[in-house]
Design brief:
By secondary structure, this protein is mostly helical. Helix 2 runs antiparallel to helix 4, helix 6 runs antiparallel to helix 7 and helix 8 runs parallel beside helix 10. The longest helix is centred in the middle third of the chain and has 35 residues. Keywords: Hydrolase, Membrane, Transmembrane, Transmembrane helix.
């Protein structure tokens, strides 16, 4: 291409911006920004299944609790036979009667009742096909902070009430104080070691598996909880005998309070703490002052007054647990 041809080419025009737009008519709608659709609302999470109805969520069948009780009874029967053999060979005197307080009797009896703990934990996977956590709490595990806090509350309420009841029985009613039991240090050591295990086993069996089975059979939360509380309290109290009416009523009251805190917290932690504190306080007072000084160990004397004072402590404990709930 020649230079002349290049000179004849029109020069490029400079950019003058976008072309002007026409003003829309008065009756013509002006398009706005694209409308954004509101995000879809997330459904609220379903509330957790109540603790007492846990069996209803894992392939419920009426016969499963029956099979579970059969397994638990078999394991406890094996432990009972071993206890009888140990009693015959060593003369430990191991039975559910708390008197006399001996470290050998406390050891064998405490371990026998503590056997309910692994028995119930085995019943869940073998009979219900799930882990044992459902028998502990709605969280599927043992909530240690709640257990520790409940122990402090139980000591400040029920522990103090039981001590005041014993003091009133000794000072105001002239109840006999025989003095420390033989082998006091060993009795205290063995008692303090086995009492919490014994309480955990009994609560897991009565306020845990038994209450969950009764509530599962009924299927209605409120009615099931009420019936389960009454059944578990009466059966547990009857386990220790019905000869002493005041002692029987006191144990029923303790069982009802334990069922109340199970319902409030959705687990057995507060019930275990309550049971363990009552057992330890009665044990220590009975070992130091003598079995005859504690109405909870030996019938007779101001048993009704002792039960009344202890009931006030139980009511205070339940009230504090209801106020704080499951907060750590």
């Amino acid at each position: 291409m020649t230079v002349r041809a290049l000179e004849g080419t029109a020069p490029e025009e400079a950019y003058a911006g976008p072309p002007p737009t026409v003003r829309p008519a008065a009756d013509q709608p002006v398009p706005g920004p694209p409308r954004q659709e509101a995000p879809a609302e997330q459904p609220e999470p379903a509330p957790p299944t109540p603790y007492l109805l846990a069996m209803r969520t894992v392939g419920w069948a009426w016969w499963r609790p029956v099979a579970g009780f059969a397994l638990i009874a078999f394991l406890l029967a094996v432990g009972f036979v071993l206890t009888r053999i140990a009693d015959l060979l060593t003369g430990t005197g191991a039975d559910l009667d708390p008197v006399p307080l001996t470290w050998r009797g406390l050891l064998v009896t405490g371990l026998l009742l503590a056997l309910a703990l692994p028995a119930v934990l085995l019943a869940w996977p073998l009979v219900h096909g799930v882990g044992p956590g459902r028998g502990l709490s709605v969280a599927g595990r043992l909530r240690w902070p709640l257990l520790g806090r409940s122990t402090v509350l139980a000591l400040a309420t029920v522990g103090v009430a039981v001590a005041l009841g014993v003091a009133g029985a000794v000072l105001l009613a002239g109840r006999e104080v025989p003095g420390p039991v033989p082998e006091l240090p060993w009795v205290l050591v063995v008692g303090l070691l086995t009492a919490p295990l014994r309480a955990a086993g009994e609560e897991l069996l009565f306020r845990g598996y038994l209450s969950q089975a009764v509530a599962g059979w009924i299927g209605r939360p409120r009615v099931g909880a009420a019936v389960a509380a009454l059944v578990s309290a009466v059966l547990w109290a009857a386990l220790y005998g019905t000869d002493d009416l005041a002692g029987f009523v006191g144990r029923v009251a303790l069982g009802l309070a334990a069922s109340a805190v199970v319902l409030l917290t959705g687990g057995i932690e507060a019930a275990v703490a309550l049971h363990a504190v009552c057992g330890v306080v009665v044990l220590v007072l009975g070992a130091v002052l003598g079995e005859g000084a504690v109405p909870g160990l030996v019938p007779g004397g101001p048993g009704a007054v002792f039960v009344l004072v202890a009931a006030l402590g139980l009511a205070a404990f339940v009230g504090l647990v209801a106020r704080r709930g499951t907060r750590s």
